[in-house]
Design goal:
This protein is an alpha+beta fold. A hairpin with a 5-residue loop joins strand 5 and strand 6. The longest helix has 16 residues.
Length: about 150
């Protein structure tokens, strides 16, 4: 049986948030995990010069990393370890230099063993920069936050 989702909209335990936010690659890319609650996560990234591709727009790898950080946070938001099985990404519009991209992930379906998430990244003007449909395998192992 799946974990019951709290209906109060409260953020996850601060210790779990700290573990999820302690991602060295995310820090290197300037990705900030802003909010995590059961079944939801949000992070942002500013497209600096180090994140541009050869044509001067946000590198797809950087955009995918933003989507993936949110995927990791939302899929682990119930306090048990989840392992990515598949992430399908569509790049729809390029991120612009200096722009702040915000990605939000929501849980579409969760069972005791798998779950599916939708993650959307948007630019400053609200346009959809990229989207991902992602699936995880859910373990019984609780996150160690102590």
């Amino acid at each position: 049986m799946a974990d019951p989702a709290p209906d109060d909209g409260a953020d996850v335990d601060p210790a779990l948030l700290a573990r999820l936010a302690a991602d060295p690659l995310a820090a290197h890319l300037g990705i900030e995990l802003e909010q995590v609650r059961p079944g939801y996560a949000r992070a942002s990234m500013t497209v600096g010069p180090q994140l541009l591709n050869a044509v001067g727009t946000a590198h797809g790898g950087a955009t995918m990393a933003l989507l993936d950080v949110v995927h990791a946070a939302v899929s682990n938001s119930h306090g048990t370890v989840a392992v990515a099985q598949d992430v399908h990404t569509e790049f729809l519009h390029p991120g612009r230099p200096g722009e702040r991209l915000v990605a939000e992930g929501t849980e579409l379906h969760r069972s005791s063993r798998t779950a599916v998430y939708r993650i959307d990244a948007r630019g400053d003007d609200g346009r959809l920069v990229g989207t991902a449909l992602a699936r995880v395998f859910r373990t019984d192992r609780a996150w160690e936050t102590g």
